[in-house]
């Protein structure tokens, strides 16, 4: 409020007259206690964190590419993407199940169940990730001669980061479910990339080679540091907020929800990252570097969707458990507006600055500009329906959501396999954009049929069935 009052005193009257409605709305969001305002506050905070994190990630990737060169940088990003995917999948959906159950337990005053859920999710994710890492190390030992030599050692080191990535994702979900966006997002998206860059620079200064092995070891150290610090902070806040003397565990109930989420997110992560992996399989590391740089530049647009998704999950969960379908449809349409228009504006600016941004990575990276344009088409298609999969997940439509992602993933893989040999990097970008269009179309149709909500940028806020009934009346 002080900032808004100060702006009112400093700005010229003609500007203040135009901005007063905006300031009034911001003041309302900042002070209101209703659930929608709380979700909007979380969206604003998450959006701000994503802006900062996108800038940090972009600058850090530029510096890493400059330090390492396109070949070693391509090796590093290929291995790091695999580690992120496997680490997230190691949670087996428990990190999102926490968001699904914790608000309900909090409303019911079931502190024992909240603590039990938090502990169970952490242990399960850590054990699962350790088993996957051990399997990967064994595969490298027995099949290492069939893998390109420059990938073997980074993959081996990367296996040890999986447990911490899995634990970090569970802690992220726990913080989101409690409405703690700073604790949820800043460790992974701000602190970790800064530490990776600092550790790489420090290692090179101490005489280490500027290669993929050095970078993956730095990523390992940064991940352990940030995750353990996040663990201490969130555990302390949970104990203070939910002082339970006992622990309740409903493992079967949680697993029945978590496993379909695992299928959904497994398909989703493969859908969003399969292009990098397939490019790495078909093309040399230099091409992986160019593609990843283009995709990372377009990630400046993705953070809009991510921020809305992070803020909407808790509110969707509360509305779905209620009976007010009009409120649910209205909030769903708001999330579409929050997603589409910022994505369109930010995307247009990023595309316009594309050649310059890519040149920062190095001279060989400028061929990625057309890739950015192709990827932007898919991003906008996805933004037209907002965080539709979050609504389906919180509504319990887990199987159909998994089916949608499976269909989009199959389309993505098939298109990549066909188009990369034909068009190279442009084929990979086209396949990814095409899969996004398939995903958006299927999500829109399913949400309309299953929930009666037309979740689309050009749709009205009322439920489809309610609107139809009103017209009939």
- Compute the number of helices: 18
Helix content: over 70%
Largest sheet: number of strands, sense, barrel closure: none
**pLDDT below 50 for ≥5 consecutive residues: which ranges?**
466-473
* Count of the domains: 1
Order of helices and strands: HHHHHHHHHHHHHHHHHH
Oligomer: single chain
Explain what the structure shows.
The chain is an all-alpha fold. The protein has one domain. It has 18 helices and no strands. The protein has helices at residues 2-10, 13-31, 35-89, 94-108, 111-143, 149-159, 162-177, 181-205, 212-241, 251-282, 285-320, 325-352, 354-359, 369-383, 388-394, 398-423, 425-451, 464-472. The longest helix has 55 residues, at 35-89. It is globular, with a radius of gyration of 23 Å. 50% of the residues are buried. The model is unreliable at 466-473 (pLDDT under 50).
Name the features.
mainly alpha, 473 residues
In short:
With 473 residues, the chain is mostly helical. It is 84% helix and 0% strand.
SSE layout and pairing:
Layout: H1 2-10, H2 13-31, H3 35-89, H4 94-108, H5 111-143, H6 149-159, H7 162-177, H8 181-205, H9 212-241, H10 251-282, H11 285-320, H12 325-352, H13 354-359, H14 369-383, H15 388-394, H16 398-423, H17 425-451, H18 464-472
Helix pairs in contact: 2-3, 3-6, 3-7, 3-8, 3-9, 3-10, 3-11, 4-5, 4-7, 4-10, 4-11, 5-6, 5-7, 6-9, 7-8, 7-9, 8-9, 10-16, 10-17, 11-12, 11-14, 12-14, 14-17, 15-17, 16-17
